[in-house]
Amino acid sequence: DQMSNRFPNSYKNYKLKVTESHQSSKADTSGTAKAIVSHLTKLNGESFQVDEIEKIRTPEAQIAFGVPSDALGGHAFHTYSLTSEDGSVSFELQHNVCGRRIYAEG
Q1: Could you say which of 15, 17, 26, 34 is catalytic?
Q2: Model's pTM, two decimal places?
Q3: What is the three-class DSSP state of 62?
């Protein structure tokens, strides 16, 4: 939040791509992804719609995305990429959680 407010448009004209994976029972788009997108769009000055977030819900695609097979029943994997117009520069943020214990612990 601080970075997007202090340095708006610092990634102007960079293309934003967002991919998130959760257990197959989660039907909606990740709230975490939506929140981070709201900050990243301040950095690149572009609009980005929630339906542009790629949601991965099938076990095969989740494993290909890097989710361990023993975490398929409970996980949260997110990748946010900002890429320059000519593709010569990219910035990527990733956060991944395997299991649900961390949510129970707070």
Answers
A1: 26
A2: 0.86
A3: helix
